[in-house]
Fold this protein.
Amino acid sequence: MNFIKYVPVMLLTCLGFMPLAANAIEEPSYRLVESWPDPAVEIRHYEPRILAMTEMAGGENSGFRVLAGYIFGGNAAEQEIAMTAPVQSTMPGADGREMAFVLPAEYAMNELPAPDDARVKFREEPAYHAAVIRFSGRATDSRVDEHWALLTAFLDSQKIETNGRPTLNQYNPPWTLPFMRRNEIIVPIVEPLRASGTAGR
């Protein structure tokens, strides 16, 4: 290992979510099943994916630094891996908070280089249905709680059952103007029996 290798990680530590400012950032593949305008809720079917994860023991910034270190060459192959969006984290106030990067779809689990940092773990997620609520502005704890309450009330009204933990997903670097920010709360749900929908991506 040499000093030059860690320059990108140090820049990320200073500037935050810099990679998310780049164009054409890969996002997880999904199909839109159904959507509503108010509140801005969607039902999506996500394809399988692999997550690089770490505990947020020292807060959000520490989790980001650990994962950024891995994708910027902090691994056995000294290989750089493309940044994706969103940055996923456990909901504020939850026990055992974690942060995750979705790894590019081109990688299989057995193709990922081993991390230098033992705090980086991998998890394969199968295809699943999810309910999603989208909002702009800064993802403060109070705003996240407000939109999670909106989503749960809406799902109750539609008799849609959740079957996993919700996550906060942020798509923009910290200097993005609040009204241009894209934040989503995503929660796995029991697959709807009804067939409906708007054409998806």
The chain has one domain: 3-189.
